[in-house]
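Quick note —
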Amino acid sequence: MRIFYIFFNRILLIKMIFLFYIISIHLIKAQRILTVGGNNWTVAVPSITEAGTNYTGTYESVTNQILLSASVPLLLSSGKVSVRYESNPTWNSNLILHARRTGDGTTVCVLCSITGGTAYQTVTTTDIELFRIVAVLALASYSNIPIQLQLTGVSVTIPAATYNSRMVFTISAL
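Predicted structure written out below.
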């Protein structure tokens, strides 16, 4: 009887290890997906026609300048969308970029939620959290999440040149 008991305990242990392995592999392979769309934004800075005048200093893109599509897998999972900029190839540090989410986009997930990011946030060269997506009972998949950009710091004291930057969006676990 004792041998029978030990044999079934080992089988149970092996089954539990196998089940843990399968679940772990599934969780590792479950990926968050982010797709970025939209157009390049060229800021139209008006000419200065009067001596001693400065630029208005703040410029905004259209409300859907960038459109994001994001998927967060698994039950009771979540993800955060972060943003940063990269000089492409040159950028003046007095020019400040801001980004905000102007809508929720579209989803078929009833109990999923998207929060944060509706106020302008300063975009730097390091990732900052823009908003979060939470999946409750299913895959949270959002499409056409609109992002608006803002540029501040435009001044006559900045050397005349063409400045470009690239916005980099990432999605990760909380």
